[in-house]
Specification:
binds ligand BV8, alpha/beta, globular, 3-stranded antiparallel β-sheet, 34% helix, single chain, 10 helices
């Protein structure tokens, strides 16, 4: 595991940072979990029980993500700018499976819940790029089995790169949580790890999250306003 001791700033993002790019959140009014049940589309048991239903749920979201109108917004761009201005000091950990941070140019980025534009083979474990629907042809290009599933972490599955994330939290001086309701673990517990490491903790959200009381500071409002403002202050304060 490569250490990145200089990552002073760890930024966790959730669905709220992509809302103004036109992507649904999960728990806001009309959000994804009000349209379908987690148990039916976002668990390994659901996939074993009815793979077609699960594939279709993610195929629809993948198509939505690839629509022309869906682009990184000012919040994604501000975080990419922060990384350019403070090279080696910023790590973004996203719960989101969209590619908006990637398209904004974020380099030091961990997708802890996987990526919608990748598929993973249940037979040979290969992870491959995927922009087309999986349902009609889940054939793995590496082993040929009809075994591809979304490369997405479902409930009950272990999130990705957890060692890397905990190492960064243990050494950070500033932890910023953006656009997440603080409902889903282990991500919702990262603020506790950062506090234990002595970091300053800041929440930028539309409204107080479940973990709001754990943050030293908070700014509430839409991410396209709060994130660029926060980044500008960080850069000015250098
Ligand atoms: C695991 C991928 C263990 C799929 C997702 C303790 C108690 C009970 C249960 C558990 C527990 N600890 C662990 C669990 C189980 C479970 C869990 O946490 N359940 C919850 C519901 C209680 N956790 C897990 O299963 C995790 N795995 O624990 O494994 C293990 C151990 C050993 C070995 C094996 C396993 C795995 C969790 C990952 C699940 N996959 N996503 C997909 O995307 O379809 S989680 C899903 O929720 C999304 O990834 C999403 O990112 C994530 C969190 O949601 P948010 O991003 O916060 O989105 P939400 O809509 O909730 O909130 C949006 C926020 O944005 C709001 O606050 C809103 O105010 C704000 N907002 C809106 N608009 C704006 C805005 N902010 C700014 N600007 C705006 N414009």
């Amino acid at each position: 595991m490569t250490m990145h001791p200089s990552e002073r700033i760890v930024i966790l993002t959730g669905a709220g940072i992509s809302k103004e790019s036109g992507l649904d959140t999960f728990r806001c009014a009309g959000g994804l979990w009000s349209q379908v049940r987690i148990e039916d589309v976002a668990t390994p048991e659901a996939f074993a029980r009815d793979p077609g239903r699960v594939q279709s749920f993610y195929d629809a979201r993948r198509r939505g993500l690839l629509e022309q109108a869906v682009r990184p917004n000012a919040a994604h761009e501000a975080l990419a700018e922060l990384e350019r201005r403070l090279p080696g000091e910023v790590l973004v950990v996203t719960q989101n499976i969209d590619d908006l941070h990637d398209r904004a140019g974020q380099g030091n980025l961990v997708h802890m819940h996987g990526e919608l534009l990748k598929a993973r083979c249940t037979r040979c474990e290969a992870v491959v790029p995927r922009r087309d629907d999986l349902a009609p042809d889940p054939r793995c290009p590496a082993c040929g089995a009809q075994g591809l599933r979304p490369h997405v972490v479902w409930f009950g599955e272990m999130p990705l790169e957890m060692e890397r994330i905990y190492a960064a939290l243990a050494g950070c001086e500033l932890f910023v949580s953006i656009g997440t309701s603080g409902n889903v673990y282990p991500a919702a517990g990262f603020v506790r790890e950062a506090r234990a490491a002595g970091a300053r903790t800041v929440e930028l959200n539309l409204e107080p999250s479940e973990g709001a009381s754990l943050f030293d500071e908070a700014v509430y409002g839409p991410a396209t306003r709060t994130v660029p403002d926060f980044v500008a202050r960080l850069i000015a304060g250098r």
